[in-house]
Write a structure and sequence with these properties.
The structure is a homotrimer. Helix content of chain A is 49%, strand content 9%. By secondary structure, chain A is an alpha/beta fold. Chain A folds into 2 domains: 297 residues, Metal-dependent hydrolases (TIM Barrel, Alpha-Beta Barrel), CATH 3.20.20; 57 residues, no CATH class. The first copy, chain A, has a 7-stranded parallel β-sheet with strand order 1-2-3-4-5-6-7. In chain A, helix 8 crosses helix 10, helix 13 packs parallel to helix 15 and helix 14 packs across helix 16. Chains in contact: A-B, A-C, B-C. At the A-B interface, helix 12, helix 13, helix 15 and helix 17 of A face helix 3 and helix 15 of B.
């Protein structure tokens, strides 16, 4: 046990030596995590844990393990010490120690270790096994707010609406109501259709017809392109009304998603259509299309970007991803988001890799004489919390 | 004032220590800038200046500035000293000094500092506010030649032609005439349509029909796919006749361009069709598709490539872009082009980042024992001027 | 002459200093080359040799040479000493020495120098001028097995089948028969159609109709999408029956291939369809889509990946490619394959760049404190031979 590891807001991930104090302080300052999800509250056996540290939805092939991945190696390296183990502990040792401490203590330690001051939680994958936003905040010693996943909201409407016409008005009311209590709306249209959707708002007639079809089988996840676009535009209205950002999951996802249709560049037409409306758009994760995302953030005043969970999945390689994002992204357009989900390890690793990766890039900029120390510190502050506080008004 | 900064042909960008003399000399030798545009001749207020240092066409969001970008940081770092300021001068100080010196002196200093021996100027965005090719040459102490933007030439024909048939012959005459006085032709079909155009030459009948439609509204920018392709093939004829390269803007542009349709790989079929004709094709900018562009340059004997303005926009991150291009591009196929436009800073930064980025990559190759110093020097000479002199016969 | 250079299994490529012994030993251990081709057995004049070291199918432009490429520089740097020359020997000196030693000795030296214990040879480009798998094994002091290229097998059936119905059954018999003697099947559908093929198995009726058309002109390479898909699914059956992996050439190829249709991400739907069948799929080369390939290997339990010949073509830049692959690829999913073809230099360079690139990445992971030395050694062993032995049961 190393109780000093769990003091709140003191991230322990080693930063490169030689960073100017101002830059080091900016990097270690509490973060606003603008994009995360709940994590499991219960004891997990190895097969469960392995499925929560991989984008796959099936076990690793016989004789192999999901620990043999960049993220798995990072858990052994960086999370083991938070649980009081030596770095690089073997998977079995790590999981035994995890069981010994129990999930509440493990979650508390890893959440505190992340050094996060505020969680904005996408509750679209909520369930009884997952910590709620409020619980995350309590365990992590941080503020917590909710983000609405619009495809999830739609499911409730589809199950209750009596007609296509009723579906339209109920959806509008529901999204407006949820928007009034949330800090942002998120769409997973990349998973349901792809980002190559028609950017135009569909006609009311087409929506009614499609909704009437949907109401005959409302338990199915929504994949109809007309209704997905209608949902999106209804969300745009709600976001504008309540001055909220609209967010999109983009880039690599699970096996269900077609990776070539998850490039946010495919949304350029939609982003152009949104520009006069003034709703901020946040592109989430984006990897391996983060250069495209950075470009969109550079040319559209209302577009923001993070690389979220991609830093956790690329782990030891995350500095290169951060460097590529920073090639082009305006400093006022990048946000920290852990993209955490499933296990509390992803909070700690998300924050740690973010800090380490950004530190590496800033360090290189300083060594090359490109940026001043105060430039570097300012970029770290803006990206770590300032931009999120401005965009989400939190 | 530091008058020593403005001696012609002595670029001041710091190169990595420890480069062999031959490599250093090759990197600092005068460049042929095979792709640039005019820059503003007049005084600029801050809002104007900001719009000229970003690919966006609108101001940064309230409370932010386009100086908070990699290119903005580079202006403060590298251009401030050329104007006699300390590196990293704040934006307001930089712009005040710029106003104090006046545009003629600012342009003269920045152009000279770039160390460029010849400008090949795309005059497609010409206007009274912009320095002409001849003026750029005078201020920069360099030779200057013109490059014809074919979509601009077409506009004049569309406004005067009396019929579709007349349009065809007038276009042919006009391009041939312009080609006889130019060093190359450039197409911006990426901006008007996308690079996923049908590679086949359209039929005369289809062209006449489309031209007749166009002549009813000739003030509009050309976006008809048939006429764009006809224009391209007419340009191919003119380029072959006058032994000129045909160039394409590719990769990231402004908010009007669909980034996923700007991948030069989409042109593979067109490049195959052009191969027997023998017209050299130059792919401009290409970022973030520069690996695709390098591949096209590797497999097609008539294809050349630069990363142009991408080095200026990625600034402190440009060495990674250069490294990726050099993974695959044949040494006789890469060209230096600043892609400069709008403000003279982009000439200085284009040349500086090119030299620094290439120096970093060569330095790494030498340190790893991969290339000899004479290999490295030769690559720098070929890329900096030799290839352009051969391809453009200048 | 340096006879000590040609002792078998002692690769001479310099690895970074300071690697822990276990990591160095793992990197230098004999490799299983799971993807290579035959190389020329005969004397080659310069024009022939140049065409074998480039993906182009035509000579370099007048006044230039295919030696002026990353791969060309690597031949001068790394292969020259194996032939007893100084590093960086000029092309003419290199080729003169090559002629002096004669192809048998050159091939023997370069193959031995590669330090490869087993060759899995794609014989789809076989011909009398190329060394057979058995000959490669003999010269290289290694085991050798054959891999069937299914599009080549189809050509023989197309030339002899009497009807569409006969074509179907003959194809099934032929692939099953070849599968029984081979270690894997390979498809080049990327070159014949693109990877954006319909993932569904075509109907028997559609196949018979298409086959009847094909039999009227059986000498043409197969490009019909229905028959290509039928061939693929017939190969899936044969692979399942004989427990073999099915492999796909993806990423950059020659001038005939549309690079934007060679992204393995386009196959996501097909990979989903294959998952329940249990046939391992190996994605070959993948560059510049190797991040997409790594993702597919991460989300699908049956998908494996190499970057093959891309390490040889990117040469001095190959460490960046390796680093990008290792961002995401599970350690049990990456395979070493030289992708060698044409000249024996590509075996030596494939193995050398693999070892050097992986060493660079592992070295960085160790220096950053991300991985333990035993992690790094294990990754090197798995990637270099362990994974291939498991997947190919060799």
């Amino acid at each position: 046990m190393r109780p000093e590891d769990v003091l709140p807001g003191e991230p322990s991930g080693e930063l490169p030596a030689g960073l100017p104090d101002a830059v080091r302080e900016a990097l270690l300052a509490p973060l606003v995590d603008h994009h995360c999800h709940g994590v499991r509250r219960d004891d997990l056996v190895r097969s469960q844990f392995e499925l929560l540290i991989t984008p796959a939805d099936s076990p690793a092939p016989p004789g192999t393990t999901h620990f043999d991945t960049p993220a798995g190696a990072a858990i052994r390296r960086w999370c083991a010490p938070v649980l009081g183990l030596e770095p690089h502990a073997p998977p079995a040792v790590y999981l035994a120690r995890r069981a010994e401490l129990g999930p509440a203590e493990v979650n508390r330690r890893l959440l505190r270790e992340a050094g996060i001051a505020a969680f904005l939680v996408d509750t679209g994958v909520d369930g009884p096994d997952l910590l709620s936003a409020a619980e995350l905040g309590r365990l992590g010693g941080a503020a917590a707010d909710e983000i609405v996943r619009i495809e999830r909201a739609e499911e409730e409407i589809a199950e209750t609406a009596a007609s296509g016409v009723a579906y339209i008005s109920a959806l509008e009311t529901e999204l407006a109501s949820r928007a009034s209590r949330a800090v942002a709306l998120t769409s997973v249209i990349a998973h349901r259709h792809g980002l190559d959707f028609d950017p135009a708002r569909p006609s009311r007639g087409a929506v009614i017809a499609a909704a009437n079809r949907r109401l005959t089988d409302p338990k199915e996840p929504l994949t109809d392109p007309v209704l997905l676009r209608h949902l999106l535009w209804t969300a745009v209205d709600a976001a504008r009304e309540h001055n909220l950002p609209l967010r999109f999951q983009t880039g690599h996802g699970g096996p269900d998603l077609d990776p070539h249709r998850a490039d946010p560049a495919l949304m350029a037409g939609f982003l152009r259509a949104l520009q006069p409306i003034g709703v901020p758009v946040v592109l989430l994760r984006c990897y391996p299309f983060h250069r495209q995302a950075a470009h969109l953030a550079a040319v559209f005043p209302h577009v923001y970007v993070d690389v979220g969970l991609a830093l956790t999945t690329t782990a030891a390689g995350s500095a290169a991803v951060m460097a590529e994002l920073l090639e082009l992204v305006p400093f006022h357009k990048q946000l920290f988001g852990s993209g955490a989900r499933g296990v509390a390890e992803t909070f700690h690793l998300g924050a740690l890799h973010y800090r380490r990766a950004l530190a590496r890039v800033l360090s290189a900029r300083l060594a090359a004489g490109e940026w001043s120390a105060s430039d570097a510190a300012r970029v770290a502050h803006m990206t770590g919390s300032g931009n999120a506080r401005r965009v989400y008004r939190r």
